[in-house]
Amino acid sequence: MRLYEKNASELSEMLRAKQCSASELCNDVLDRINEVENEIGAFVTVDAEGAKENAARVDKAIADGEKLHPLAGIPIGIKDNISTKGMRTTCSSRMLENYVPPFDAFVADKVKSAGMTILGKMNMDEFAMGSSTETSYMHLTRNPHNTECVPGGSSGGSAAAVAAGEAVVTLGSDTGGSIRQPAALCGVVGMKPTYGSVSRYGLVAFASSLDQIGPMGRSVKDVAMVQSLICGHDPMDATSKNMEYPDYAAGLNENVQGLRIGIPKEYFGNGIDDSVKSAVMEAVKQYESNGAVIKEISLPSTEYAINTYYIIASAEASSNLARFDGVKYGYRAKDYTNLIDMYEKTRSEGFGDEVKRRIMLGTFVLSSGYFDAYYKKAKIVQKNISQEFSNAFEQCDIIATPTVPASAFKIGENIGDPIKMYYNDVCTVTVNIAGLPAISLPCGKDGKGMPMGLQLIGDKFTEQKLLNAAYAYEKMCGGFDTLAKITGEAK
Amino acid sequence: MKIDIKHIAKLARLRIEDDKLEKFEKDMESIVNMVDKLPDVTDTLELDASEPMALREDKAVTGKFTRDEMLANAPEVQAGCLVVPKTVE
Amino acid sequence: MKDYEIVVGLEVHAELNTDSKIYCNCKNAFGLEVNSQVCPVCMGMPGTLPTLNSKVVDYAIKMGHALNCKINRVCKQDRKNYFYPDLPKAYQISQADVPLCENGCLEFMVDGEIKKVRITRIHIEEDAGKLLHDESFAGSLVDLNRCGVPLIEIVSEPDIRSSAEAKAYLDTIKSILQYIGISDCKMQEGSIRCDVNVSVNEKGAKEFGTRSEMKNVNSFSAAVRGIEYEAKRQIEVLEAGGTVAQETRRWDDAKGVSVVMRSKEDAQDYRYFPEPDMLTIVVDEERVNKLKESLPELPNIKIKRYVSELGLSQTDAVLIAEAMDKSRLFDEAVALNMCSAKNISNWILGDISKYVNETGKTIDETELTAKNLCVLIQQIEKNVISNSAGKKVFQVIVEDGSDPLKVIEEKGLAQNSDTGFIEELVKEVLANNEKSINDYKNGKTNALGYLVGQCMKASKGKANPGLVKETVTKMLND
Predict the structure, then answer these.
(1) Residue C277 and residue A366: Cβ atoms within 8 Å?
(2) Does this complex have an ipTM over 0.85?
């Protein structure tokens, strides 16, 4: 078994026991990238040199007997919308193709301080707008389970790299499902933490009130370890919650005796594949047979979730992406006649069509005469959706749903139909709207041999409970078979 | 609903090329029709005072970044300034 | 021509003199090297977030109290979206529907009358950068040092009826900002600017006329000129049978004209929405009250008090009240209750002002104390020394802070008011000036002055000049 196949928790032990060195680990993962990256396309930037330097530093520190963070020397990939000082951060957009941030995101700083080996930056949908990584200006990312299929999105590169062994763990960002949906489609574990538990400082904003950075990995414990590293109060982010954050990995517990699991009927209706429904219900049965209490619940405002989401997210995006105007950084059009012409050409050439569509929608819903009918109404519905979740969490500890309505679709299949693409997020957006934590777990494969996802949703700041429930499922399954056999056409 | 794509594009400082205009218009209209389906809510939006924002102490920190670092990504720089096409009020 | 009424509303933007900027910890400073006071936050780099400076909130609340506003302890910030090269994020963080302070009023004196102007609101926001234009260069240059400098915007109701009222309003706002120490109000640095809304209507009309908004008004005197020009322009339009257009105009102070910037049809659509990078601002009641208690007596209140209680003229009251060092000295001196307020006022606006103007010092930087000033004035009031001797004493005590009584004694400045002594003196002088006596009796009244002068000379300046004059007059007429 090669080193790249192992999980972070095992590798952490091995490094400490000197069963392998950080450099050996780093080199093996870099080799794996060389072997499969042409097929997968998970990275925008690979920083082999920087990775090797860090690994050497960690090895020296181990040799010197320094006390290291458990994740020191573990290779990680970072989604390319998270600012990394001195390493270009493109958001997979022409607009930022050559942008090199002069500062580190809060999470990038945490990752560096822990001594993790940064392999490079992961491909994504342009500015995190999409559910297939097809809107990347850079290149496609393919699903390791079937390279004809999309890896999901927008954190498609982060999910595919973990599934393909090109990274041990990765960071993604999730605005409407962008960690959980690709995790489900690539058969790995991905968590969207509670809004406010991970600082957004340095995350290139898509929708500020919904965006959250989170970890992806091949086991629940790996995800818990990374979450413990990246969470915490940051005075640079006014929406960051100032509280004590536990060590989730140390606190993992597989006991589900008496755990109340809510099943919201709205998430099992039309539009959800039968194979997905039965896989999720099978998982629920396993919980029940291990002592959990299953309750049917109702979240009636779910039907408005997609609409609410697209209004709020697009409105914020239209404002957040206005700063890309060719003045201070990023792309500037070559020929222009005056200031307005420079703005319009820069933005029209620098942004892809999906980004333009969202900016247009957001501009429209905020424009004079429409604000009340769209944005304000959406904010009220958002409050109602949050309230329904709050009520539900009085009856249960965890809510279980599918992560995605179906397994990965073929590349190009939905690209011409934005609405169809948007409905991929139908099970995940409510979580962002309500600011809750949720995790997607591998939940078997469908008839096409493609992974499906089980989504567990927790109440605000109950990541430990959520991770425990996830950990329990992993144990019930006898571990997750998360590393993909890269294949052109699944059986 | 009919949407004035050109007006919205102007507000957003975007230019939709003529050959893409029709598809854009169609997509936008179907998206707006989708998001149009919201319940008739009449509640007012109250400010949430339960989570007061922590404020920053007024203390300046100098020498954090050099001007060169700040301007390193700029498309055009002259005399320590960003350069834009001439603006006339 | 019909009789018209001018209606003016003012929006004053004042930069706050905090140490750091409103949303990042860059230095809030003027006049430094271009783009040297910027960081990823105020430069709007992708991924950066704003954090609100607590002092900005405090300062705005203080101004809210000074203008008798209701303080919205729970409020929020909003984004105002528009593209311009001096606005790096392409939105300004401001406050839309829930400002920090609202519904206030300001009273001040104009032409001896008390004028009241209602304050609509005061909100906090960030300043934009600066565009530099140079003929030698094809483009414009952008300096972002000013981005994120904290501003408060003070919006008045359209309660102002003349350019003189507007000037008095602006002067009052400025002196309050300085009194409570929240803004440097340096016009030449642009730290206080205003937008002017003007309309005209026939006297007695039930509704206001259509208003125009004038931007780029960079001084209070420009505001006066702008209002007068704009009112005249609108009246001419109406007199010619036209209608005034609702538009935004730009004031060109050099040319003394306003020109159209944009019409109502081109009005900007700012797409305001709540700033999602921030939570609700919640200020606890105790803090609001504490800020209120921290306020000094404000200049507009002082002026009212000086005029109605101390009998100063409005002109003198304004001159003293609007300068903090003058009013502090005045208030301290009046409180000692040793001499008349009017005399204190005369000294402050006379010799003291002259001294500080000549030396370039503030009153606080001199050695003058309220106590010493009052002792000096008292000696004059009691005729112990003459007014001109008083000026000599002042020159000493303002420089070294010594006791005026000692100075009078050391310099032998005390005058002799003994009637016996003065009568002897006058007799002697009259005896030696027969010619002048005759001149006086023949109607040459200036002979009196000559005789008094001779008496003063004979006494080596020590005789009480009032008493001398009185005695000479009496003896000549006997």
Answers:
(1) no
(2) yes
